[in-house]
Amino acid sequence: MRFTSTVTLHIKQQIKMALQQSRGLFVTGASLSTLALLTACGGGGGDDDSSKASVTPPTTITTPITTPPATTIPTTPIVIPVVDPTSLDDLVVDPDYDLQAAFTLLVQVDLATSQRGYFSLCDDYKQQNQLITVNYESCLLRGALDSGQLNEQLLVANHQRNLMAVVWFYDGSAPRYQQWQYSSDSAGQQLAIN
Asked: How far from 192 is each of 12, 143, 150, 181, CA to CA, in Å?
């Protein structure tokens, strides 16, 4: 009986020690079952040699508790989407905008020449340094100069803010280019070539 109490005491101490060491770890079910079986059965018998056999306490298997990685809160600002207007009631118009789809451009060419010339005003052009390329299929106004003069009023769409004026002569001399830009400071839009 003495052996049984010694083994039981030893097993209880092992369990207590295992629980203190684990601190948040747990013992598997098989190990607990084995420990409980040894404790419940006792040694049974007397002080014969068979009961004094060396008993090794069962080893406990512990599984570490893994801590999930800390989640980081994104630092990007929350963007609230701008909703496109779905009706005229949702439309917001700048107070300075007059809701006109076009404006009037006054074109005045006054050259002191008697040569025959031609005028073109186009919106499709490219300018790289001194080289200017004009697509004459995109012209808004074309006309012959009468003694170096041309006076016209032209209705121009609001999206056309840059135009290229070209005056060229029939004698083959180099054409004269002048770029026009929309002026928001001016009450009326004008292109003058002198």
From this structure: 108, 15, 10, 12
Give Cβ neighbours of residue 102 (< 8 Å, ≥ 6 apart).
Answer: 155, 156, 157, 158
Q: How confident is the model at residue 87 (pLDDT cuts 50, 70, 90)?
A: confident
Give the predicted TM-score (pTM) of the model.
Answer: 0.49
